[in-house]
Design brief:
The protein is of the alpha/beta class. The protein is 42% helix and 16% strand. The chain has ten helices and ten strands. The protein has helices spanning 11-14, 26-38, 54-57, 63-81, 100-120, 150-160, 178-184, 223-241, 267-284, 299-314; strands at 4-8, 44-48, 88-91, 94-96, 125-128, 167-171, 190-197, 212-217, 246-250, 289-293. The strands form two sheets. Strands 2-1-5-10-9-6-7-8 form an eight-stranded parallel sheet, with helices on both faces. The structure holds zinc ion. The site of zinc ion (ZN) has 7 residues, from loops.
């Protein structure tokens, strides 16, 4: 049994934050096109993402945050009806349209359904092709294109609802997953390992909690150097933690061709990282991996990198 799930939903395409915004529906189209043209999509179990139940979202987010987002969505719908603006701004670069709340529920729901399926043994691992992304969403705040923290919600869910003892989150987006850190810092059941370009977005006072392996790297770091740093800092901790399930915050904006960051990764680096994560998952987690799309804004590089990542997950 080595099936790889591919979780997505049409609502994730309908969320958009205004013309020219880099976190756009075309990102999912580029991924779909690439999986179709290469035949990789044929090797995947395609699954419809359900909406995440609010009680599960509240494992990672404050009740007021969830209520405020839903309220803002309802209010926006009323205002549009009355001829008002089509978007509600929640931070300078993050906005809701009338579909955002539903898309956010599906994105988090994808991570939850993928978690259920890999724990049940129905799937070996899964990729969630979803937006909005999640890793900047804090316990009580939407920011940086993110509303609900899909990976953090699913990590808490795996512990609280499925009774796992230890999970890991690997975040290889070019930006620091500050929202995930906000939610999981101090929860020793969750080991979070990441690298990120520093100094860079977001401005954040890093926690020194011992369950976080933060690896800031300077702009223009290339893949080979990054691999050495990753080997030295992430893997000893991952091995020692022995996670029963590994979540990936899979952002592809550290790619050399992505202008949203200035790191120098290429497809082969994503192959390498994914393989190394898979090795740890095979040793400790029965191979269980749930990977969720975060950033990645150069459509061509994003599509090629996701393909490379999924090829390793699915062995194709
Ligand atoms: Zn990013």
């Amino acid at each position: 049994m080595s099936k790889t799930g591919y979780f997505t939903h049409g609502d994730c395409r309908k969320h958009e934050m205004g013309g020219g915004h880099p976190e756009c529906p075309a990102r999912l189209d580029a991924i779909e096109d690439r999986l179709l043209i290469t035949g990789v999509g044929d090797a995947l179990e395609r699954m419809e993402a359900p909406p995440a139940p609010v009680v599960d979202i509240e494992l990672a987010h404050g009740r007021m945050h969830v209520a405020a987002l839903r309220g803002l969505s309802d209010q926006l719908a009323e205002e549009i009806e009355a001829g008002g603006p089509t978007h509600a701004q929640v931070d300078p670069d993050t906005a809701m349209n009338v579909h955002t709340w539903k898309a956010a529920l599906r994105a988090a729901g994808a991570a939850l359904a993928a978690t259920d399926a890999v724990i049940a043994g129905e799937l070996q691992n899964a990729f969630c092709a979803v937006r909005p992304p999640g890793h900047h969403a804090c316990r009580d705040k939407a920011m940086g294109f993110c509303f609900l923290n899909n990976v953090a919600i699913a990590a808490k869910y795996a512990l609280e609802r499925h009774g796992l003892q230890r999970v890991a989150i690997v975040d290889f987006d070019v930006h620091h997953g500050n929202g995930t850190e906000d939610i999981v810092a101090g929860d020793d059941r969750i080991l979070m390992v990441s690298f990120y370009q520093h100094p860079y977005y977001p401005e954040w006072n890093h926690s020194s909690a011992r369950n976080l392996v933060n690896m800031p790297v300077p702009a223009y770091t290339r893949g080979m150097d990054l691999r050495e740093m990753i080997d030295a800092s992430w893997f000893p901790r991952l091995e020692a933690h022995r996670p029963e399930l590994i979540f990936i915050s899979a952002g592809f904006d550290a790619h050399r061709e992505d202008d949203m960051g200035q790191l120098g990764l290429v497809e082969q680096d994503y192959v390498w990282i994914t393989q190394r994560i898979k090795d740890v998952a095979q040793r400790h987690a029965k191979g269980r991996i749930v990977s969720c799309l975060e950033g990645g804004y150069n459509l061509s590089a994003l599509a090629r990198s996701v393909e490379a990542h999924i090829r390793v997950l699915a062995d194709v």
